[in-house]
């Protein structure tokens, strides 16, 4: 573990169910905006301080809709054949969060005057953020504030906000201004993407309709309010103002000392993307009226009921380690808040919490994030694998652009097209095809969803298999082994290499699965097989080639070192003492020229070790240990996808300290800002990796031959931990303490699994067993 990652101190107060900021520091505003983000997989909003600031404070007021993007032409210094022409950027949409508040003519902002009793809390159980404080203005006016907001996980078009303010030592005029402001830009786009099409007010619902210039997607927003004084039934209507790109509501109200003023604000969004045609403006107005009629309390209740079920199914309990309990819950909530659930949207590397990576989806989904949903909420997992089916045509086109048959999935995308300008660490990562197929295989295995496999999954498996057959070759100087050259593996610090170990093994798994499915279809679904063969123009000879390539795949192993070389050249590169690199020069990707990064034995992230997790049964524990010893001192973990894999493998090979420390780094990566980049958004792959550290690491869960296997132990510092798994329709709860493990079959009839070498069978009559840990 790199020394600069050690001993990070918590930034926010430790608590089981809450993230608490006890002191407002404007210098941390941009980081806290990310941490206090809210979302529901459709809408995401950064934790903007609604009233803004009067001094210069770094931040990015961001609101996003999953899958809603603009394309801009990529400007190349030196364009080359088949480089992607268009980028895609998840748009920062109209600002509905900002609010202005004045006491007489004095504007309230937290960077002026004085704050007493401040706290901001992300309530993880309820999925809401609250801010409570007493503020004293520069001229001595004191008021008590209570601000709360959430984005409904149940009513996905709706967000709700509530402001309560009580003057403590004065009576006067309170002026409040809210707005839908369409004059918003993204940091990374050259042009302002959204053009205002319609704006206005109907039945007290403010609205704004905009359209993107290039992609021609529509977005509509409706906003309604309810402003009351405590104890009074009637509410106050605002004055409305319609400006060029903004619709505003303004109230001026006389408030007495100690009188509470309560503003409820509801917003609804709807969008039309390339696969949709809807009356978005009508829908947004209809939804916001429905929200306003229901009211804040009722909406919140519906939202928290959704979360109650989520936590009941998904929670991971860690006893005796508050920091990690908080960390893992934060990660799980943020994953839920970020994930698209409609089969057309996915989960971005930064979720819906920032503009880093421009809102792109990566292999992060399949390799890191999918397991968390698959074994907890398989319907969400299904929508993630469906996303790849729904973008298969784009993958086909991309393969054609590169003169290949079949399909090649994009490394970075939103809409399905490749958008990365830097092919060395994108297009060259052909392993994405195998990652997608691995996810499909795991999905089908864990859910037995044959309907998905037959109607969607298999087409992806075969089309992507075709690419491998063309992309590799039988090389005479390697004894006619099937080699795959000029690729980048997961470790982006070694670009354009031959025979990346991860890629070759995963391609082999992919090709064998493609062959296995062909056999299965021939026997079990012969008509469908013929239909698909016709549709894909698939020849029997192709399947023979897949088998031949898989049987003869070149699988790197070095006898002398007793390890799996990451690629053909890695072990011959110059060694480098990475502990000697100054912290300011990390991550290397931003501070060294690629040629210098590539020429040393330095890894950005887990590569061979990741393979040892995904295809665990292919490697002995001794070999995993040897590889851990070899790669650990060479890895900077400049990618947030790394630490979790090191933790899982460390657990397996018995390096308990490494396992714990890498888990700490993973689970608290964002809360403690390990890589000093949280202001750009959260790290969703690492967040899901934290779940893997517990389930695959400490509990040692693996699945092979359609059976669950566990090898649980409890880290020294903990008393116990507990989680559940849904596998083939059975829900199993696993509770591990220092001595023993309790398995309880919560749902389903019968389940057999392994605890170390012992086979256990549970059924509904006999649904619990306690066994000793080895
Ligand atoms: C990593 C990739 C990852 C991407 C998005 C990069 O730094 O090297 O593996 O897909 O971040 O999370």
Automatic annotation (TrEMBL):
Which residues are the active-site ones? 492
> Which of this chain's residues are annotated to bind substrate?
363-364, 604-605
Parts forming coiled coils: 522-549
Is Protein biosynthesis included in the keywords of this UniProt record? no
- What are the Glycoside hydrolase family 65 N-terminal domain coordinates in residue numbering? 21-268
Q: Which residues form the Glycoside hydrolase family 65 central catalytic domain?
A: 329-692
- Supply the Gene3D superfamilies for this chain: 1.50.10.10, Glycoside hydrolase, family 65, N-terminal domain, Maltose phosphorylase, domain 3
Which Pfam family is one of this chain's hits?
Answer: Glyco_hydro_65C
> What SUPFAM superfamilies has UniProt attached to this entry?
Galactose mutarotase-like (SSF74650), Six-hairpin glycosidases (SSF48208)
| Alphabetic keyword roster | Coiled coil, Glycosyltransferase, Transferase
Tell me the Gene Ontology biological-process terms attached to this UniProt entry.
carbohydrate metabolic process
Q: Which domain of life is it from?
A: Bacteria
User: InterPro entries attached here?
Assistant: 6-hairpin_glycosidase_sf (IPR008928), 6hp_glycosidase-like_sf (IPR012341), Gal_mutarotase_sf_dom (IPR011013), GH65_N (IPR037018), Glyco_hydro_65_C (IPR005194), Glyco_hydro_65_M (IPR005195), Glyco_hydro_65_N (IPR005196), Malt_Pase/Glycosyl_Hdrlase (IPR017045)
Q: Name one GO molecular function term.
A: carbohydrate binding
Domain Glycoside hydrolase family 65 C-terminal: from-to ranges: 701-762
| Family the entry assigns | Belongs to the glycosyl hydrolase 65 family.
Q: What is this protein called?
A: Alpha,alpha-trehalose phosphorylase
- Species of provenance: Anaerovirgula multivorans
